[in-house]
From TrEMBL, chains A, B:
Residues 26-80 form the HTH lacI-type domain. It comes from Pseudoduganella violacea. It comes from the Bacteria. This is DNA-binding LacI/PurR family transcriptional regulator. InterPro entries: HTH_LacI (IPR000843), LacI/GalR-like_sensor (IPR046335), Lambda_DNA-bd_dom_sf (IPR010982), Peripla_BP_I (IPR028082). The keyword Cytoplasm does not apply. GO terms for molecular function: DNA-binding transcription factor activity; transcription cis-regulatory region binding. Keywords: DNA-binding, Repressor, Transcription, Transcription regulation.
DNA sequence: TTGTATGCGTTATCAT
DNA sequence: ATGATAACGCATACAA
């Protein structure tokens, strides 16, 4: 009969027996047994910077390799209180801009040795229900590309889950956040277009419940008001291509004619507006009508468009968000740092950005 | 002195003490204490379909509510061997097509009560390293929008992690998968264009390491060969906009003139090719040159383009993938079901799809 | 450096 | 229907 520990047992046989016979997954105990060390020794081998002798490390690693052992994150997180997981809250991608953000954020989160757990939602108003799902996963932190209410932010704090708000400026609350100043961006675009001599504006704003959309709209409106220009014609869309054409028609109906310039709440609507103007209304853009958007999504740069738009430095923002969250995770005491990025004007060729030569000059 | 359990103690005080005093997170024990039941009773209340009396259920839930208790998924998964998590392997989104797939897949995974853990990679060849990360998270399953090697598939099996391959047809292996037949799609497109009288073709294929890209290319090439048409001029791109222009230039250089039709490995390259042809080479598309792509990404449908392309039913595919994985998770015995979807031709207006009126007809 | 023993928070098994 | 108790797989304090 084989005793429990025959000194010269075939380790290969042991291993095969352990792994093949049972349905069980291999644990650190299995590795320990095979390597002839204690379970804690195995554990230490997988903890960077733990004190293990070279010899045991080698034997443990060999055994682990042989068994295909990988530490169980669930068990580990139970004791370390770290899941190496970050919740990524993001509203659905009809925007064509979120995919880029999503990809960048995922990338950056990975750089910090964590993985993104994806929580997509149809509308930003679904955040509430989503959050309840988030908690049980014991994420180390949350990056929210959505507007949270004060109560929701408070709950994050209460649960001691670090939170970084991405691309949303929650003015009054002191939560960590990374964003472009959309209000300022709206002002900037309006100012630039006004300086070029445009007087009658149209604005195709994004959905009313979107903070980004309303900031952009407010910024533009306020600036135009300050400059003493006529009130802009206003239409609302839902950030999609079709909204651009629809918004343009509404604005023309309101004014009885095409405006001098149209500011769209994002690029996709701007492209829709542009195409409708050019291909269906036969308007000369930018000769008769200037069109501008926000985001500098990839297609805005294509030869057929070359859209005038404001770029957000998404990559830098994603980097900042991940870094900020990581620092918050490491030192939960950290204050509510806000990192503001400046949008960059892409001049493009769909808006006239210099004054027309005047008749006087002739 | 207060005893351990004073019958008429202030439950509110107890609760505050428990939650405020310590840094600890609230556990089912806390809830049990507050509700005056055993911990296992609490556990049962959070398990759908367990046998609990209405009375205790109510008291437990009230206590849980008061404490903000949420079951800890890590602890749960340790014993249930379910993390309610699915790994989503996806190569980076320069493709402009993956974002849609990603969003849909996430959506559908959620429908099954699970969440997507995101593993993005720069290139499909990174799958190997990524997989090692995947295992430790104890995911319930894997959806891979990338090509896996036989060894990698075998490892999934060995670890008993259900796997569904998305949008990749691994011909020889019997792994569960959901895909369009890209080879057939390539043939279909080539056949249709050839029937319209195009003779000299150019192909701007996607990256050589992409299975999808090479299937499309092979399909088109094979069909042209079968039809006895001249060998197509071939260029390779990396699925991005710039590759379209670059590929077109290469092909023209090879042939000494523009081909009759160009088949591009995806829409983004097709749009790049189209724009280059129209705006820089001043070619009439589809008068002098037909251009077609694959995927029917959103911009392909915009007024400026109206691209001839083949649509993949991504939503249906995502639904199928999630369902398939879910069934595999519930019944690991399941065979390697494959679900093939047919691409749908979007006729568009960038390729001539009917024969030219012949001189004879005049 | 190494091994022993304990606990993380839950579910599951078994009595009652 | 309910409560005691034993896992689940790992990390850590402590003793050696």
């Amino acid at each position: 009969m084989t005793k429990t520990k025959p000194p010269q047992a075939l380790s290969a046989a042991d291993q095969k027996a352990a792994i093949l016979r049972e349905d069980r997954r291999v644990t650190s105990y299995d590795v320990a047994m095979l390597a002839g060390v204690s379970q804690s020794a195995v554990s230490r081998c997988f903890k960077p910077g733990a004190s293990v002798s070279k010899a045991t490390y080698a034997r443990v690693m060999q055994a682990a390799e042989g068994l295909g052992y990988i530490p169980n994150a669930a068990a580990r997180s139970l004791i370390t209180r770290r899941s190496n997981t970050v919740a990524l809250l993001i509203s659905n991608a009809s925007n064509l801009y979120y995919p880029e953000a999503l990809s960048e954020l995922s990338q950056q989160i990975t750089r910090h040795g964590k993985r993104a757990l994806l929580f997509t939602m149809q509308s930003e108003s679904d955040v509430g229900e989503i959050l309840n799902d988030v908690w049980q996963y014991q994420v180390d932190g949350v990056i929210a590309a959505a507007a949270l209410s004060e109560a929701q932010i408070a709950e994050c704090e209460r649960r001691r889950v670090p939170l970084v708000v991405f691309n949303r400026h929650l003015r009054d609350s002191h939560v960590a956040s990374v964003f472009c100043d959309q209000y300022e961006a709206g002002r900037m675009l309006a100012a630039r277009l006004a300086a070029a001599g445009h007087r009658q504006f149209g604005i195709i704003a994004g959905p009313e419940e979107s903070v980004v959309a309303s900031e952009r709209r407010r910024g533009a409106s306020d600036k135009l008001l300050e400059l003493g220009l006529p009130a802009p014609a206003l239409a609302y869309g839902c950030f999609d291509y079709g909204s651009g054409a629809h918004g343009l028609r509404q604005i023309i109906a309101q004014l009885g004619r095409a405006p001098d310039a149209i500011i769209c709440g994002n690029d996709v609507m701007a492209l829709g507006c542009l195409d409708h103007a050019r291909h269906e209304l036969r308007l000369d853009v930018p000769g008769e009508l200037s069109v501008a958007g926000f985001d500098a999504v990839e297609p805005s740069n294509w030869l057929s468009y070359n859209l005038t738009t404001l770029r957000q430095p998404i990559q830098k923002m994603a980097l900042a968000a991940a870094d900020l969250l990581a620092s918050l995770i490491d030192a939960p005491c950290g204050g509510a740092e806000k990192r503001v990025f400046a949008p960059q004007l892409i001049e493009g060729a769909t808006a006239r950005l210099t004054p027309r030569p005047t008749a006087l000059a002739a």
